[in-house]
Amino acid sequence: MQRLKLFIPLLVFVALAAMFFGVERRVQRGEYAPTDLPSALLNQPLPDFSLPALDDGRILTKSDIQGEWFLLNVWATWCPTCHYEHPFLIKLAERGVKIYSVDYKDTADASRRWLVEKGNPYVATLFDAAGDFGLDLGVTGAPETYLVDATGVVRFRYQGALDQRVWDREFAPLIDSLALIPVSAEVSQ
What class is the 50-177 domain? Predict the structure, then answer.
């Protein structure tokens, strides 16, 4: 019986390996995407907020930013993936995509420096130092991007970095299907 107990860790390891192998196979077949997390906000109004703008401190509310469709990008200077995604956001903004942002649980000085050094693709940045608005959005980490229509309804949420592949696969078809505006499939490199 004592010898049998020695095999318990091996059996647990084999069971876990089989589970991970099964999930990996589902990912490869396209049946499961770990970033496809459900959002309670889907097809719901963007939560109300009253937050200072990072650049000048003026207070912005939901009514200040709605009126036409836009992306709401959640980012932070401490987020490594946000560094990767930022150049693509600049390209989107250059193509006329309206992007607002939420600087999530960050410091204002570091965030201002980031935007000066890396470029600022945002119409305005909401400074959410405590993360309260992020909680209302259901943010699980940064970056996350929400597609919001002209009436202020959240139509899509993507967790992870935006790049050309994600834009072409997730955002461009949805924007076209919602008849928000025709969107070129290729953002110039």
Answer: alpha beta
